[in-house]
Amino acid sequence: MLGAKSKQTNEKTLTVVANASKESQDTCVVAAGTTIEGKFNSTENVRLDGQVKGEVKCALRLVMGETGRIEGNVRTKDAIIMGTIEGELIAEGLLHLKSTAVIRGTISAKNMTVDEGARYVGECKIG
């Protein structure tokens, strides 16, 4: 997985641990057609074009493509969302909702950009 180790435990937790320095630009890619059930944790950037049913934690940047879908809570530093999230979304830095994004749940972010056409239903806390 791009220079990373994967670990599957009985609690259905997938943890991605980088073998590189803090300046690393490694990215974990979840391709379209892939479904992950359970907790998903990454210490690096994540590109999500598949589906996750469960909690997602990303220490750096989450980029979700148009085919990406998460059914569960998301916590990340920064995010660019083009897909669908059903659950709480927490971005500690910048959250960018592209025109194809659909969020159903609470949004919490330090800063947020919303492109025309993006949709969200639920509470939104910015700042």
SSE string, helix = H, strand = E?
EEEEEEEEEEEEEEEE
Cα shape: globular
Low-confidence stretches: 1-23
User: What count of domains describes the coordinates?
Assistant: 1
End-to-end separation in angstroms reads 35 Å
Q: Estimate the strand proportion.
A: over 45%
Give a written overview of the molecule.
The structure is a single chain. The chain has one domain. The radius of gyration is 14 Å and the shape is globular. The chain has no helices and 16 strands. A hairpin with a 4-residue loop joins strand 1 and strand 2. Strands 1, 2, 3, 5, 6, 8, 10, 12, 14 and 16 form a ten-stranded mixed β-sheet that branches. A six-stranded parallel β-sheet has the order 4-7-9-11-13-15, with no helix packed on it. By secondary structure, it is an all-beta fold. 0% of the residues lie in helices and 61% in strands. Mean pLDDT is 86; it is low at 1-23.
SSE topology sketch:
Elements: E1 4-8, E2 13-18, E3 27-30, E4 35-37, E5 39-42, E6 45-48, E7 51-53, E8 56-64, E9 69-71, E10 74-81, E11 84-86, E12 89-97, E13 102-104, E14 107-114, E15 119-121, E16 124-126
Parallel strand pairs: 2-5, 3-6, 4-7, 5-8, 6-8, 7-9, 8-10, 9-11, 10-12, 11-13, 12-14, 13-15, 14-16
Antiparallel strand pairs: 1-2
Structure, briefly:
By secondary structure, this protein is mainly β.
Structure keywords:
61% strand, six-stranded parallel β-sheet, 16 strands, mainly beta, ten-stranded mixed β-sheet, disordered N terminus, 127 residues
